[in-house]
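Here's what a typical entry looks like (Hemerythrin-like domain-containing protein):
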Amino acid sequence: MNIVSDDIQEVTAAPARVDMYTGIHKALRAFMADTLLAVGRMDCDDAVELAQVTQRVLELLGACASHLQHENEHVHVAMEVRAPGASDAIAHEHQDHLTHITRLGNLVADLRGAGISARPAAAQHLYRELSLFIADNFWHMQVEETAHNAVLWSRYTDAELIAIHDRLVASIPPEEMMAVARWMVPFMNPAERLVLLADIRGKAPAPAFQAILDTARPHLTTAEWAKLARGLGLAPVDGLVEA
Ligand SMILES: [Fe+2]
């Protein structure tokens, strides 16, 4: 973690720049925290709940694996072009995360295959291992948001960063995009949410924009939805775009 300290100073003093990490990392932090809490309160004797919660863990693990792949293929490649070696430490952590993801997947399989008497211990084991994975990821994301951004901001213009991010987003399949929207839109602050949705409206087909709104809306409070609808100029009652 020592690589961070000098760069944090730089980031703290820097003016606002294009930040590829903050939105998706808020989504991941929310997805991770929510899933961990669900595992912690899970009733192992309830077969339906066990199936649902463990499926959610697998979905989280899949999202984490996809996310680090996107970073490797787009962000790290860009960093290495202009700052060779700058992504080495985090790329190494991505390898560790893949190992941890495989281990957690095996713990889910163990829990699902356990007899009734063995389930509580298996669930507790999964809960603790997942918490450590999440803790590690929280540190990891902090490094990316500070040290990696410092590298990106010193070597790329905002227009170039937007182009890199657009290529990354274009590589994401629609189903994955909807899963990301489910966790990203509700857990941003109102200003971030409005900027994101306005950007999506300008770049995506109208049905895709509407689908993202529909996905996020049930997870917003009434006040949050009102602020978003007002900012986007949407009809306040049904969320449809005004004619
Ligand atoms: Fe990462």
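Residues 185-235 form one domain.

More examples are in the samples folder.
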